[in-house]
Amino acid sequence: MEKEIGLPVHAMQGATRDPAVARVIDPEGQEIVISVVMPCLDEEKTIGPCVTKALEGIRRTGLPGEVIVSDNGSTDRSVEIATELGARVVHQPNRGYGNAYRKGFDEARGKYIVMGDSDDTYDFTEIGQLVEKLREGNEYVLGSRFAGKILPGAMPWLHQYVGNPVLTGLLNFMFGLKSSDAHSGLRAFTRDAYKRMRLQTTGMEFASEMVINAARAKLKVAEVPITYYPREGESKLRSFRDGWRHLRFMFLYSPDHLFLVPGSVLVGIGLIGMIWLSTGAKVVSGHFVDYHFMFIFSLLTIVGFQVLLTGFYAKAYAFTHRFAPDDRMIQLFYRYFSLEEWLIAGFLIFLAGFGIDAAIFYTWIQHHFKDLFAVREALLALTLMVVGLQLIFSSFLLSILNINSKVTDAPEGVSQ
Question: 70 in helix, strand or coil?
């Protein structure tokens, strides 16, 4: 085993299965403790060293283990090489980084699952330090490249100094994490932690989903420094496309930052502006600010309120479908939410706007239907009526979204 680690790639490709390797993978009478899972799509140049290093990493821990290669439709000799070297190959016909990993995780038999890419950028002989952290009581361990060492040529400048730091910073800010390398490909977790993370994504955003769901599941997380090596062959990562997929996923998983925060800001600016101009035109730094700006503030109020409501739709959907079962805000909201009370509130707001319009119409009649200039009052009425209608119809939708939660939480034998 020690000698095989140093073999050149072409020698690894022609290697045959070693009986000693088989004993490491599937020892008789022993329960497998470590499962090393790596996805593979046409990696014949690097799959050999990765499998061999993973087997050596398992041997160094002194624990029984296995290496699983999750093939995602390779057309080269990757499967043959992995099998010859002692890995257990499983096949995932559905393309995608996340699909390949989830197939491998589902097939894993170990108590501890270690994941890593099969492009030879991660040294699988280092897995012992990740497993040791799990044995200490942690549930999720991340191998940090930034806390460790990134060798020259291993990571493009854009990824090292812009992409990864920005995405990691956003993840930390939006989800309350304290990670130094949220997109590292070398990680380890317990089987129970895998079940609790409830992973679903199929593509490159899978890496972000793991970090986010680990935080949401309140897993005990640790980091260890690792070394990141230059890869051989062409990278399948597409910087801007995959970066956008990560960013999109983060925002979709955080309705607070996508909807509630900007919605609140828009509503606040709109309401303050409308109130400020409702009594008449203002002069700011020598400039005349009049009802033209009220149109803008009215628009901000209406759009902001709709964005806020959309945020509540998203949080309600995530809560009732168990994507975010511990969301305290939506739990508190539904504890006091009443369809009838919200309908009344929406109707009263609409009625207030309608009343202002009715007063304008009455004044117009009193002036014998002559020209009437009541732009400020009309804008206020329009804003109130639109907001009131939004609230009325949103009340029904929020009530519908809560039906699933009520049915799920009902005791056995009790109909809703």
Answer: strand
Residue pLDDT, tens place only, 223-277: 999 999 997 756 555 556 666 776 777 777 778 888 899 999 999 999 999 989 8
210 burial via Cβ count (<10 Å: 0-12, 13-18, 19+): buried
Query: What's the Rg (C-alpha) of the chain?
Result: 29
CB atoms within 10 A of CB 238: 11
Q: How far apart are CA 382 and CA 91, in angstroms?
A: 60
Beta bridge partners of 69: 38, 89
Structure tokens at 404: 């699933």
Query: Coil, strand or helix: which one is 194?
Result: helix
- Rounded to an integer, what distance in angstroms lies between the CA atom of residue 307 and that of residue 84? 56
**What is the rounded CA–CA span in Å between residue 55 and residue 23?**
10
Q: For residue 217, which of 209, 229, 225, 226 has the smallest C-alpha distance?
A: 209
pLDDT tens track for 179-234: 889 889 899 999 999 999 988 888 888 888 888 888 888 899 999 999 999 977 56
Which neighbouring-strand residues pair with 38?
A: 69
CA angle at 347 for the pair 344 and 348, rounded to the nearest 5°: 85
Q: pLDDT tens across 354-384, in order? A: 999 999 998 888 888 877 778 888 999 999 9
Task: Answer left, alpha or beta for residue 64, where phi above 0 means left and psi between -120 and 50 means alpha.
Answer: beta
Question: 123 near 226, Cβ under 8 Å?
Answer: yes
Give SS3 for 48: helix
CA 299 vs CA 63, 118, 269, 314, 383: distances in Å: 64, 52, 10, 22, 8
The reply to whether the predicted model has a pTM over 0.90 is: no
Q: Which residues contact 164 (CB under 8 A, 6 or more apart)?
A: 146, 155, 181, 182, 183
Q: What is the pLDDT, as a whole number, of residue 177?
A: 79
For residues 338 and 402, is the Cβ–Cβ distance under 8 A?
no
All domains of the chain, ordered by start, with CATH?
Answer: 2-252 (3.90.550.10), 255-408 (no CATH)
